[in-house]
Description:
Strand content: 5-15%
Radius of gyration: 15 Å
Number of strands: 4
Structural class: alpha+beta
Number of domains: 1
Oligomer: single chain
Amino acid sequence: xxxxxxxxxxxxQLLQFNLLTSHDIPRFTTLCNNDLTEIRIGLVFxxxxxxxxxxxxxxxxxxxxxxxxxxxxYMIWDKTKWTQPLLNIYKRLIRIRKTSKALEKGxxxxxxxHKNILCLPDNIEMR
Length: 127
C-alpha cells in the first residue's frame, strides 16, 4: 500500500476511493466469518487510512454474501435483522472521520510493520 501511495501525488492520495467490499467480491462480514472484532479492525483501518472510505450497501448492517453473484444480495430493510453493534461501529467511525481534519486531510504513516502485524501509536482509542 505504501508503494502504491508513493506513486500518487499527495492531493490524489486524499481522493482515492477505498473499500473493503464491492459488487463483485465476497462481503466483508462473510470474509471475517461474522467475527465482530475482525470486522472492527478492518473498519478502523478503512476509516483512518488516507483517502475516501466507501461502504457497499448492506455492509453496515452485516449483510452477508459469498462469491459473485452471492455478494449482490438484496438489502434487508427489516431492522430487527440488522447487526446493531456493527451499525453502531460504522456510525461512530463516520462521526469520528467527519469531525477530524487529520483524518480528512492528513497523511498516513506506518509506525511499525512486522510480518502480518501493524502497530499503531498507543494513543489511538479503539473502543
